[in-house]
Write a structure and sequence with these properties.
By secondary structure, the chain is of the alpha+beta class. The protein contains 11 helices and 20 strands.
């Protein structure tokens, strides 16, 4: 099993999608990996893309102590070998690996029980051209945009509320609960709130990820960086290549405009606009004018057809377009 397949299986474990037989097979294969294998196959940056939380030294040592008590064999080299796995697998203070080892040796630790009891996530997948609105167990309402995948638990644990926007864009109207912060994980950001409304966008094929805040306050973090606090009337845009955030002032009505069927572009590149239209109208674009890719546009479209929007872009920039079924040529 190669590294991508291992990561796929481990992600399936995190979301409770493995059968007992599949988990046993995964654990057997993990047994055959040396510490060097782990270093080569699972670089730290790759782990952060799966579970971006940093583990504190105290949490790490506590987890290792748990593991030591699960099996006599854990007292030697196995603990050192598992250190990277434990460090990478912490979710809100519950160490996944402790749960894995507990299942492996037929024993339960308190940490493992908590994790296993709260790890059943389901994927909400929304196709391009559609939107879906769901209400979570705490009363939080989420609208998921086209081309998106949101992983949510059947119910939230007592200690916190966490969801994973694995791909795409979603609008969150979070039910306030001061005892349980609400955390949204994406591939590039961790966003923590108590009760607020905001829009998050992080599509894999796009060069940036961002959050726009309508009400309340959020703390946004990338990797191990310091959290950035965002207040209403502002957005944060993360350049994925440079890992730099840019704060922008916005009209709070813009934050959730797409939920109302509006498309608001302020100094947006043609590249970005076509990505937005792709997910809104379930079409693909072939851009034959590389000189136009970064040209900037400012416009607002309210429940317009795709052709109406393309006509406006044509008038504004001089591009030409041809619609061929679900394919649009831009020249």
């Amino acid at each position: 099993m190669d590294a991508p397949e291992f990561r796929k299986r481990i992600q399936a474990y995190y979301t409770g999608q493995l059968t007992e037989e599949e988990m046993a097979s995964l654990l057997r294969k993990m047994d055959g990996l040396s510490a060097g294998d782990l270093e080569r196959m699972f670089p730290e940056v790759e782990w952060r893309s799966i579970q971006p939380y940093q583990v504190t030294p105290e949490e790490l040592e506590a987890g290792l102590e748990k593991i030591k008590h699960l099996s006599v064999r854990s007292a030697g080299g196995r603990v050192r070998k598992m250190r990277r796995w434990v460090q990478a697998a912490c979710i809100s203070g519950a160490l996944v690996m402790a749960g894995v080892l507990a299942a492996r040796y037929g024993k339960r630790s308190s940490m493992g029980t908590i994790m296993l009891a709260s790890a059943h996530y389901k994927d909400i997948k929304v196709e391009d051209g559609r939107r879906s609105t769901i209400t979570l167990s705490d009363g939080t309402v989420v609208t998921v945009n086209g081309g998106s995948v949101l992983s949510v638990p059947d119910s939230f644990a007592a200690g916190g509320r966490e969801v994973y926007l694995r791909e795409g864009e979603a609008w969150f109207d979070v039910a306030r609960d001061v005892r349980r912060p609400f955390i949204v994980h994406t591939s590039h950001m961790n966003i923590q709130v108590l009760g607020t409304s905001f829009s998050v966008r992080d599509y894999g094929e796009e060069r940036s990820a961002g959050i726009s805040l309508s009400t309340g306050e959020v703390a946004v973090r990338h990797g191990e960086g310091e959290p950035i606090h965002l207040t209403p009337g502002y957005s944060l845009v993360l350049n994925k290549q440079t890992a730099v955030f840019v704060r922008k002032a916005i009209d709070t009505a813009e934050a959730g405009a797409w939920v109302r069927g509006e498309l608001v572009f302020q100094g947006a590149s043609l590249h970005h606009i076509l990505n937005v239209l792709k997910h809104r109208y379930a079409v693909s674009f072939v851009l034959q004018r590389s000189d136009k890719e970064e040209e900037k546009f400012s416009a607002t479209f309210r429940n317009n057809s795709l052709e109406t929007i393309l006509q406006q872009l044509q008038l504004m920039s001089g591009i030409r377009y041809t619609i061929e079924g679900k394919r649009v040529l831009i020249r």
